[in-house]
Amino acid sequence: MEDVAKAAAVSTATVSRVLNSPELVAPETAARVQRAIQDLGYRPNVFAQGLMTRKSRLLGIALPDIHGEFYSELLRGADAEARRQGYHLLISSEARDDESGLIGSAAGFVAGVAVMLTEPNEALWKQIREASEPFVVIDSDIGAAGVDRVLVDNAIGTRDAVDHLLGSVKPERCYFVGGPRENFDTEQRARVFADTLSERGHRPDERHVRFGDYSVDWGHRCGGEILAAANGEPIGVLAGNDEIAFGVMLAAADRGLNVPGKVRIIGFDDTRLATLLRPGLTTVRVPMAQVGAAAIAALIARIDEPGRPASCTRLPTELVVRGTSAPAKP
Amino acid sequence: MEDVAKAAAVSTATVSRVLNSPELVAPETAARVQRAIQDLGYRPNVFAQGLMTRKSRLLGIALPDIHGEFYSELLRGADAEARRQGYHLLISSEARDDESGLIGSAAGFVAGVAVMLTEPNEALWKQIREASEPFVVIDSDIGAAGVDRVLVDNAIGTRDAVDHLLGSVKPERCYFVGGPRENFDTEQRARVFADTLSERGHRPDERHVRFGDYSVDWGHRCGGEILAAANGEPIGVLAGNDEIAFGVMLAAADRGLNVPGKVRIIGFDDTRLATLLRPGLTTVRVPMAQVGAAAIAALIARIDEPGRPASCTRLPTELVVRGTSAPAKP
DNA sequence: AGTGGCGATGTAAGCCTTTGCATACGTAGA
DNA sequence: TCTACGTATGCAAAGGCTTACATCGCCACT
Fold first, then answer.
1. pLDDT digits (tens, 9 = 90+) for B286-314
2. Percentage with pLDDT > 90 across chain B
3. Residues of A202-233 as b/e, b for ≥16 C-beta within 10 angstroms?
4. For residue B123, what pLDDT is reported?
5. Closest chain B residue to the Cα of A254, Cα to Cα
6. pLDDT per position as a tens digit, A128-174
7. N or C: which end of chain B has fewer CB within 10 A?
8. A55 touching B, CB under 8 A?
C-alpha cells in the first residue's frame, strides 16, 4: 500500500480512501491512485482490513448434512448469491452444537451464518442465539420472533397435490407417507395434507398419515402395508419426499399394481430422481437453489442494516405433474 | 488477551505462547493461563493472527460445478478432513478463470486451494500456477510435474468391468458410451476399455467407443443406435457414468430387450441412482468422499511443508456387481 | 565462589489498514 | 480585504496478535 501511495504521490490514507470512499477524493487523484494500484498489482490485505473494521466478507452456511442433490442445490444457490454480492461462503457439513461446529469455531471471522435446521435442536439453537454474529435460519419455524427466516411454503404444493389426488381418488383412499415426525417439513406437509382432506370432507386418521424416515426403504415398506390394506381399490399417496415416493412405486410393482392406474403417487422435492423414473414422478417442486440464495440475501441485508425488522421469506412450492398421478378428470 | 494476561498474572506474550507453543511455557503457568482463558471465554482474533502470521486456517475448494450428489459427496469428504485438521472450507461453485473465481478473489486469505479440473482449461491452469497459494489438483492429469494431485484410478474399475462383461459377451459386442470426449475421466475410461478389449483379442473401433455428454438422454440415444445395430444379439455396454447407463437401460426397455438378458449394462460412479434402479445397476464405484479428503490432506501437507516432493494420490475404483450385468460364468 | 548456560518470562516492535483529527488551500460572502 | 467554511489530503493512532531479543533466576560445573 505504501508503494502505491508513493507511486501515486499521495499518502496511504488517500489510497485507502480511494478504495473505500471514493467520493472523498478528487477524481484526478483517484485516477492516479487507481493506475498505481493496477500497475503494482496491489491487493489490500484482508486480515488488516478485518482487524480494523471487524468485518469480513465471509459468510458461513451450516447444513444438517451436505448429502445428496437436495443440499447441493441449496449450496449452489447460496454460493451464487454470495458471490454476486462479493462474499465468500464457508461451509459446514454438520450443524453441530458443539465447538467443532461452524458456529463455535468460525465465531469471529464470519460476518454472519445461515443455519439450516430441519428438526428441533435446543442446544444448537441456544448456541446460535448466543453467538455474536448475525444469522438467518433456513427451513425452521422455531424461535420465530425477531429472527430472519427463509422458509419453504409447503402449504401451496401440498394443497395442490391433495386436490390433484382427489381428482381421481376418494378422500378416504388418500395417504401421506412422511419422513421423520420431528422434521419441520414433514410435519407441515402432514398437517396441510390432513387439513385439506378435512376441508374436502374426510378427516384422515393416523393410519392415513404415517411417519418414518426419508428413505426408499421406508416408502417401500409403508407402501406395502397400505396397499395390503387397500384391497385393490385405487389409492393415492403423497410422499414426504421423492425417495419415499419411489419406495411406494416399488411396493406397487411388487404387487403388480399399475401406476398410475391403481396407485397414484406424488413425491416431494422434485429431485433428479423424479425426472428419471418411468413413469415420471409427479412431485412437488421445492426451489432449493432459491432458498439458498434467499438465505444469503437476507443475511447480507441484516449485516448491512442490523436494525432492520426481521424478515421472513417464504418460497412457494409447486406441483409438477408427471406420469405417476392420473390426469385430472376432464 | 490483555485481560487474560492480567487474570493469569503473566504477559500477553506468555498467553500467546500457551496457545501456540505450549512447550515453551512452564506447565503450572500454562494451566493458570488456560483457566483464565476458559473463565473469560477468550478467543484469539483471527484477523490479528492472520496479519502476523500471514497464514489462515482457510482452504478453498473450486469445483467445476457443485451439482448433484457426485460433487456433494466430494465436498463432504473434503469438509470432514478439513474440519478434522482444524481448517475451514471455502467453496466456489465455479472454477472460473477470471477474477470472480475463487483463485482470483480469495487470493491472499486462503492458505491453499484445491481445484478440480475435469477438462483442459489453459487459462485457469495458468491462473493457478501464477497464484501464490499452494494448490492441489483433483482429477486432472495435466501439468503433471511438481504438482500435488489426487486422481481416480479409473484403470482398475474399467478393466474389471470389461472383464466382467467379457464373462458373458463377445468382445466384438462390447461398447463404451462415454461422456464428453475432453473429459479426463471419460478419456481414461475409454482408453482402458479399448486397451483391455485389445488384450483380450479385439481392438474396438470408433463405433464401439462413443462420446457424448453425461446425460440420461445421451445414453438413451446412443444406446438406441447401438441396439438397433446389434440385431438382437446380446451386447455389453460400459457407460461413462450412471446416468448414461440408465439411458441405455431405457433404450433397452424401448425395444423390449431384457436387462441383463439381452443387454448387460455397467455404469460408472456408483451414485445413489445405481442402487435405486431395478434391476440394480452394476457400476464402478468412485470414492468421491475419499477423493475430497485426500485432496485436503495433500493440501495441508503441502502447506505445512512447502518443500516436500509433489504427491500423487490415486484412489482405486471398484466394480460393484448388481442386477444389470449377467453373473460371471460359473 | 565464580561463571556459563539454560529454561521461563517479559518487553516492545511490527504486521497492514482504517479513520478521527489536523492541516492547507481555495472560494464566497461580508 | 478579512473571515468562514468546505474540500482534499496528510498525520498518526489504534486494532490484537506474534516473536526476536532482552532479562532474570537458577543449577551445574570448574
1. 999 999 999 999 999 999 888 889 999 99
2. 67
3. bebeeebbbbbbbebebbbbbbbebbeebeee
4. 79
5. B278
6. 777 778 889 998 876 667 789 999 999 999 999 999 999 999 999 99
7. C
8. no
Q: Which of 213-242 (A) contact B at CB < 8 A?
A: 216
**Which of B76, B220, B250 to substitute to test the interface with A, most A CBs within 10 Å?**
B76
State the helix-helix crossing angle for A12-20 and A27-40, rounded to 10 degrees. Answer: 100
Pick the CATH number of A58-152+288-314 from 3.30.1330.10, 3.40.50.880, 3.90.550.10, 3.40.50.2300: 3.40.50.2300
Burial (0-12, 13-18, 19+ Cβ within 10 Å), B13: exposed
CB atoms A88 and B105 under 8 Å: yes
Query: Which CATH superfamily includes the segment(s) B2-44?
Result: lambda repressor-like DNA-binding domains (1.10.260.40)
Each residue's pLDDT tens digit, B132-190: 788 899 987 766 677 899 999 999 999 999 999 999 999 999 999 999 999 999 999 99
CB pairs under 8 A between A and B: 118
The whole-number pLDDT of residue A144 equals 61
Contacts of A127 in chain B (CB under 8 A): none
Helices (H), A62-210: 68-84, 102-105, 122-130, 154-166, 184-199
Neighbours of B107 (CB within 10 A): 19
Between CA A308 and C1' D6 the distance (Å) reads 34
